[in-house]
UniProtKB/TrEMBL annotation:
GO terms for cellular component: cytoplasm. It comes from Roseburia faecis. Pathway: Porphyrin-containing compound metabolism; protoporphyrin-IX biosynthesis; 5-aminolevulinate from L-glutamyl-tRNA(Glu): step 2/2. This is Glutamate-1-semialdehyde 2,1-aminomutase. Its cofactor is pyridoxal 5'-phosphate. It is an enzyme of class 5 (isomerase). The lineage of its organism: Bacteria, Bacillati, Bacillota, Clostridia, Lachnospirales. GO terms for biological process: protoporphyrinogen IX biosynthetic process. The gene is hemL. Keywords: Cytoplasm, Isomerase, Porphyrin biosynthesis, Pyridoxal phosphate.
Length: 424
């Protein structure tokens, strides 16, 4: 324990870090509280520097599917550290990782390791453009694919023709080729292909949207995207940075029986260390340097410590065939309890170990319905949960993540606090 408190650390942090944080959502701006500075975490529990021990449903935004500091993973990381932190030269574990990926996710015939989800999506899009020799891409409103320039867009006033940067510092020219469609709306995609039949390199999608809160795909939506991309000679990219190894061992593509051309991974694949990967069909991936003309590189890519953590995590998931059933059951129990306690004051979306409680009476099926949620009501709920030892996302538009370290007692305690909140 340090003698610091979150209040004091936050005051110091704000002087030297924008918003006092290194990634915006951590600043708790959406919920009007002081962020908790974390001391340590083990299993399903996270402890802040103030000495509060909480049940954690953020799980570092997804990587922590086994819970925190799993001893089997930590052991492998320690052993890897003893052998050296980085060499900038190929190592055996990178080969093992690419082989395991191809085995667990058959569409990943050839892959390239990177160090974040942002790099994975940015690079996959570059490959898709290089392969198709086309410039435009389609993304969906409310889907997040990291913070590269071309992906920080929102629809302009004439959505069919213009996208505008969604961040200062992104030149309008850099988002000119990013077309924005509506999640779960085949018509919006059709219209873009009809307007630009020979110019669209790829569609990128979160197969389960999880960055506008959790919004599962409507029946037939992913199949439709698979068909229309094929029809127009565009590639289909699954951004599985959240869904990979979480919805199923083979990700959303196994869960929904869809084969994308390219996929991107992050979060769980690093087991808590910075790793990302992109890959897919061999003929497409041979475009990547040094086999082909699409340049992409990384000093720390395939880092020996990060691949040790990632491989250990994936091997544990692979060996435990019941894990996805347990995660689904525990998360469904939480979802049912909230629906029962809150009635039509909220709409709960849940699929596998992903879940969102939207503070709206409407069904949430896309970006428009997600944003009907009352963020002030969410902030109130968040504060109550935090004060009662339950650590959930400090934003209405993030997922709850359930890990395999969450015990029956954790789930029951969480349900009890939720019931208490909604009874008031
Ligand atoms: C988190 C996330 C990313 C970006 O990953 P980083 O490692 O944060 O760069 C990309 N796509 C999706 C779907 C994500 O949830």
């Amino acid at each position: 324990m340090t003698d610091q408190t979150s209040e004091l650390l936050y005051m110091r942090a704000k002087l030297r870090l924008p918003g006092g944080v290194n990634s915006p959502v951590r600043a708790y701006q959406a919920v009007g509280r002081t962020p908790r500075f974390i001391q340590s975490a083990k299993g399903s529990h996270i402890t802040d520097v103030d000495g509060n021990e909480m049940i954690d449903y953020v799980c570092s935004w997804g990587p922590g599917i086994l819970g925190h500091a799993d001893s089997r993973v930590i052991e492998k990381v320690k052993a890897a550290c003893e052998e050296g932190l980085t060499f900038g030269a190929p190592t055996e574990r990178e080969v093992e990782m690419a082989e395991l990926l191809a085995q667990l996710v058959p569409s990943m015939e050839v892959s390239r390791l990177v160090s974040s989800g942002t790099e994975a999506t940015m690079s996959a899009i570059r490959v898709a453009r290089g392969y198709t020799k086309r410039d435009k891409i389609i993304k969906f409103r409310g889907c997040y694919h990291g913070h590269s320039d071309g992906l920080l867009v929102k629809a302009g006033s004439a959505a069919l023709t213009t996208s505008v940067p969604d961040s200062a510092g992104v030149p309008a020219d850099f988002t000119r080729h990013t077309l924005v469609a509506e999640y779960n709306s085949p018509d919006s995609v059709k219209a873009l292909f009809e307007a630009y039949p020979d110019e669209i390199a790829a569609i990128i999608v979160e197969p389960v949207a999880a960055n506008m809160g959790v919004v599962p795909p409507a029946d037939g939506f992913l199949e439709f995207l698979r068909e229309i991309t094929k029809h127009y000679g565009a590639l289909f990219i699954f951004d599985e940075v959240i869904t990979g190894f979480r919805l199923a061992l083979g990700g959303a593509q196994e869960y929904f029986h869809i084969t994308p051309d390219l996929s991107t991974f992050g979060k769980i694949i690093g087991g808590g260390m910075p790793v990302g990967a992109y890959g897919g069909r061999e003929d497409i991936m041979r475009m990547v340097s040094p086999d082909g003309p699409v340049y992409q590189a990384g000093t720390l890519s395939g880092n020996p410590i990060a691949t040790a953590a990632g491989l250990a995590t994936l091997r544990i998931l692979e060996a435990d065939t019941d894990i996805y059933m347990r995660l689904q059951e525990n998360t469904a129990m939480l979802a049912d309890a909230v629906r029962h306690a809150a009635g039509n004051r909220v709409h709960v979306n849940q699929i596998g170990s992903l879940m969102s409680i939207f503070f709206t009476g409407e069904d949430v099926t896309d970006y428009d319905s997600a944003t009907t949620a009352d963020t002030k009501a969410y902030a109130d709920y968040f504060g109550f949960m935090l004060d009662h030892g339950i650590y959930v996302a400090p934003s209405q538009f993030e997922s709850m993540f359930v890990s395999d370290a969450h015990t029956d007692a954790d789930i029951q305690k969480t349900i009890h606090v939720m019931q208490e909140y909604f009874a008031e």
